Amino acid sequence: MSPRSLFVAVLGVTLLNGFVSPAVPMVFFMAPIWMPEFAPHTPVAILYGTSLIVSVSTLLISGVPAALFERLTGRQETDQASMLVWLGAAILLTLPGLL
């Protein structure tokens, strides 16, 4: 698989985590803190925002092990191995919501 297709898989896993993560209710109830005043305060809008926050957080947090892997192995470019590390970290972060 190419790194591009692996990145699409990482995005899919992080989007899945945005719906099934145990952190979703916690972020949902913290909506008065992160929700801007001009946005509609309907439950659907808050749920979409919550899902987006959890998905992007998963994407960023799961990228840390891949970045450390690249740094420790001295790689100059992202390759298939780095993307597999990123995908594995994203899957590990998604597992609590699936179990």
Rg, Cα atoms, Å: 16 Å
Oligomer: single chain
Tell me the structural class.
mainly alpha
Look at the structure and give the mean pLDDT. Answer: 94
Give the total of beta strands: 0
User: Are there runs of 5+ residues with pLDDT below 50, and where?
Assistant: none
Taken in chain order, the helices and strands follow as HHHHH
Helix tally equals 5
How does the major sheet shape up?
A: none
Q: Hey, roughly how much beta strand do the residues contain? A: under 5%
Shape: elongated
Assign a percent range to the helix content.
over 70%
First-last Cα distance: 27 Å
Topology:
Blueprint: H1 3-20, H2 24-29, H3 31-34, H4 43-73, H5 80-98
